[in-house]
Write a structure and sequence with these properties.
The complex is a heterodimer of chains A (about 130) and B (about 120). Chain A is of the alpha/beta class and about 130 residues long. Chain A has a single domain (about 1-130), classed as Hypothetical Protein Ychn, Chain: A. Chain A is about 40% helix and about 20% strand. In chain A, helix 2 links the parallel strand 2 and strand 3 (about 75-80). In chain A, helix 1 packs parallel to helix 2. The longest helix of chain B has 14 residues, at about 20-30. A five-stranded parallel beta sheet of chain B has the order 4-3-2-1-5. Chain B has about 120 residues and is α/β, with parallel strands linked by helices. In chain B, helix 1 links the parallel strand 1 (about 5-10) and strand 2. Chain B has four helices and five strands. Chain B is globular, with a radius of gyration of 14 Å. Chain B is about 25% helix and about 20% strand. Classes of the chains: A alpha/beta (about 130), B alpha/beta (about 120). Chains A and B meet through helix 3 and helix 5 of A and helix 1 and strand 5 of B.
Chain lengths: ~130, ~120
């Protein structure tokens, strides 16, 4: 079955961010397809490459990246939500004249239209957090 | 396959960003000509009240986004009857110009009929 995930919660703040990752992993292991993972609201922090959790805690960002590389996942971060919360690509940082960029590799910034598109093209949308 | 979508507006207008970001998602969906229905329930009911003064807490008015609904082709919103009653809010307190506000007594049955549910 073709799934999309919407993630609204920040890593290390809510369990739902971690649940989203584990759910994605199980879906793929069971042979389902993930059309897109859309990170919205505080969920945009899942694509912040500057997160530095203690070594004995799960590195959620690295694990999303690993899953993305292995399955070529479409990990999309809402650009408007990300700008408000300081998750910027090189291009956005330059355009907005900010001192640094921190969008993690494997994630892409795009508009809310990508959530609408995911709803239209997936058999199931599963929301985490919010 | 049916792709009918309903957005649940469950959160109060201020205090967290989710109500605003939810409405932005709804307006984007409508702008992309996807049919989307809105159900206000729980504390989401408070989004509909007029006479908000968000500038006093440094916020933009969320009601302004609701007033834009007809421009995006959304001419009806659904409101949970029990959520209104629990908060002693009457139907005439939750009106939006150009939008029909319809009360729903069985939100569970309603939601179950949709293919996709967005929750904010």
């Amino acid at each position: 079955m073709k799934f999309s995930l919407a993630v609204y919660s920040a890593p290390y703040s809510a369990q739902s961010a971690s649940s989203a990752l584990r759910f994605a992993r199980v879906l793929l292991a069971q042979g389902h397809e993930i059309y897109r993972v859309f990170f919205y609201c505080d969920g945009v922090q899942n694509g912040n490459s500057l997160t530095a959790p203690p070594q004995d805690e799960t590195d959620l960002i690295a694990q999303w990246q690993e899953l993305q590389r292995r399955y070529h996942l479409d990990l999309v971060i809402c650009i408007a939500a990300a700008q408000r919360r300081g998750v910027l690509s090189e291009r956005e940082a330059k355009r907005l004249e900010k001192p640094a960029a921190n969008l993690a590799d494997g994630f892409e910034l795009a508009g809310l239209g990508q959530l609408v598109d995911a709803v239209a093209h997936s058999e199931r949308l599963v929301t985490f957090g919010g | 396959m049916s792709h009918s979508t309903i957005a649940l507006c469950r959160t109060p207008p201020y205090g967290s960003a989710i109500a605003r970001e939810g409405l932005e998602a709804v307006l984007t969906s409508a702008a992309m000509e996807q049919e989307i229905d809105l159900l206000f329930l729980g504390d989401g009911i408070f989004q509909l009240l007029d006479h908000q003064s968000p500038e006093e807490i440094g916020q933009k008015s969320l009601r302004r986004n609701l007033l834009a609904l007809p421009m995006f082709g959304i001419e009806q919103v659904l409101v949970c009857h029990k959520s209104l009653r629990d908060r002693t809010i009457t139907l005439d307190q939750v009106q939006i110009p150009g939008v029909e506000v319809k009360t729903i007594r069985e939100p569970g049955t309603l939601i179950a009929a949709y293919h996709c549910v967005l929750s904010f």
